[in-house]
Each structure stands twice: as C-alpha cells, then as structure tokens.
Amino acid sequence: MPDRPLDRVRRGFAARPSRSQAVVAVLLALLGFAGTVQVSEVRSDDAYVGTRRDDLVQLLQSLSVAQSRASDQLAELEQTRDALQLSSQQRRVALEESQDRLETLRLLSGRSSAIGPGVTITIEDPDGTVAAATLLNAVEELRDSGAEAIEINDSARVVAQTWFADGADPADATLVVDSRAVSAPYVVEVIGDPDTLVEAVAFPGGLTDEVEALGGTVTIAKSDELQVESLAPERAVTFGEPIT
Amino acid sequence: MIALLGLVAGIVVGLIVEPSVPGALQPYLPIAVVAALDATFGALRAFLDGVFNERVFVISFVSNVIVAALIVYLGDQLGVGSQLSTGVVVVLGIRIFSNVAAIRRRLLHA
After folding, report:
1. Residue A124 has pLDDT above 70, yes or no
2. The pTM is what?
3. Of A73, A204, A218, B78, which residue is least crowded by CB atoms under 10 Å?
C-alpha cells in the first residue's frame, strides 16, 4: 500500500539525493547547530549569561533592597550590642568600686589583716604605772595622725569600738583591751605614714613624755613593711539601721 | 536520509565549534530554535500525510523563525519581552504537541 505512512518513511530513506532533500538537510543542520549552541550557552558556568536585561535589573533591585534591609538589621544589632557592652561595663566599674570600698572598710573595721609602712611603739612599764587612759590617749593621737590599722601586742586589734580598761591588779602592768588582757611591754604596731606617726608620739607632752613621767620608756621604730595580723572581734548591729 | 544526516551534522558542528552567542542575538536564539522545531514537526507531519513540499517547508521554517524573533523584539521594545517570549513558547509548544500527536496517530494508529 503506497499511502501508508511507514512506507513513506521507508521510501524517504531509500530515495536518491535530490534538491529538496538537500534543502531540508541544510535547514535541519541549521536547527541542530542553533539548538546545540543554545544548550551549551545555557549550560555554561555563568548563571546570568542568558538572562534578559529587565530580569537582571529586577534581580539587582531585589538584591539591593535585601542588602539595605540587612544593613539596617546590622545597625540595629550593633546598637543593641553597644548598649549591652556599655551596661556591662558600668556594672563592672560599679562592682570594682564596691570591691575597693569593701576592702577599705574591712581594713578600717579590723576585719582583715593589713600590711604597709608604719611604726612600732614599744612601751616599757617596769612599775605597772601606765594606765588604760594613757594608752587610749596615745591611740587617739595616732588616729589623729592618720593611723589605718593599730594592733597591741600582736593580739588586740584596735578599731572604733575598742575599749580600754585597767587590769584587776594595778601593780602587775596588765591592761584589758576588748576583754583581752595585754601585759607590758606594750608593743603597739601602727600602719600609716611613719613620719607623722612618730610626731604623734614624740611631741612635747605626748605619749613619750607621759610615760617617762610615770617611770617607763618609749621606743619608736619606723618600718617600711609592717604586718597587722590580728582581727577585731565580729560585732553585730542590733539597734542601728543604715539610711539609704 | 540526507535530511537526517544534515541534522546530525549540525549538532556535531555545534558541539565542536562551541561558539558563543553574540549579545544582540541572545534573547532571540532560544525562541528561534523553538519556532524551527515547530516548523520541522509540521513538515514531518506533512511528509507522513504525503503532502510534503520542500518549498512550503523552507518558507514556513524561515518565516517561523523570523516572526518569533520579531515578536520577541517587539516585546523587548514594549517592555514585556519576557512575558511575550513565554507566550510564544507556550503557543509553539502547543503546536508541537498537536503535530506530534498527529504523527503518532499516523504511525501507530493510536
């Protein structure tokens, strides 16, 4: 049957080369060439090679919008970070300040050992004539001269609340400091400016003169590094309340 | 036979030479290829129907390519290039489908 399509295909393959076949071949070759070129173009590494100008412009715009949004976000986050850093820095400074203040107060209230320059005052009292009042006077003078830590006989720390009393027997050269018995010779270690402290003891009518009038002796030794190791007894506040 | 050889030769030349498409032609080439495909399938259908005429094929091939390129060019000038080329591809795709369906009916009677 000559008009069956498959026969026609078969005949087409068997046909002699003709002008019409050549023309069709040229056009198909053109098609194959263009198709291949286009496919390789699309497959080439740059993803934007075949993109139209309008699409590229749109792409660029959306990218720049996204970028500005991201940079806005960045600025916001940086601001937050700066604020947090500032507040944490302020907290740290406040903490350091209060730490310093705590150390100062601990030292002044006799709740921590202290080290520093100062003087050692030794009061010899062979006759037991030095009374609590004498020692208290001396302590007041030392405080006036800027003493920061005072200790008697390596055992009694003198602070704001410290009290002095005469011993039970006036003749045996014993005093009571904060319920603690101390006996002569009284060694008073004071941390402060050594020159000023020496003046506080040696001025006319001061501790030296007073003790010598009672028959004792006072020796003063300056020191670059003195240790005050005893602690004042811990005290609880019962009546007072701080006003903030 | 020669026609098939021509197709193969075109593909081979394209693979070997691997030319880069000039920028001015870039938007038109894919549409032109699709239009040429449409003309080719139309020709194949005509051939199977026994009404193939190489003059008609040449004219439809060339005019298809030119019209497709013109439509895309016009779309670019009007600022709707990408939409219009999508439309051209859709229309040509439908035509290719219907041609292929006709060819299938001729060959397989199904």
Report:
1. yes
2. 0.48
3. A204
pLDDT tens string A195-242: 998 888 888 888 888 888 888 888 999 989 988 888 888 888 889 888
Record the tokens describing residue A215, joined without a space: 């028959």
**Residue ranges of chain B whose CB lies within 8 Å of a chain A CB:** 1-11, 13-15, 18-21, 26-27, 29-30, 32-33, 36-37, 40, 43, 47-50, 54, 57-58, 61, 76, 79, 81-82, 106-107
Give the CA distances from residue B3 to residues A8, A168, A226, in Å, rounded to whole numbers and listed in that order: 15, 138, 114
Closest CA to A44 of B10, B34, B20: B20
Could you report the predicted ipTM of this complex, rounded to two decimals? 0.78
Residue A1 is predicted with a pLDDT of: 45
> Does residue B34 lie in a domain region?
yes
Identify whether B17 is part of a domain.
no
Q: What is the Cα–Cα distance from A84 to A82, expressed in whole angstroms? A: 5
| Residue B59: pLDDT over 50 | yes
How many whole angstroms separate alpha carbon A188 and alpha carbon A121?
Answer: 5
Q: Is residue B94 one of the residues assigned to a domain? A: yes
Residue A117's CB is within 10 A of a number of other CB atoms, namely 15
A27 in B contact zone (CB under 8 Å): yes
Residue of chain A with shortest Cα separation from B43: A24
Range of the domain at B44: 27-108
Q: In chain B, how many domains are there?
A: 1
- Whether the pLDDT of residue B4 is over 80: the answer is no
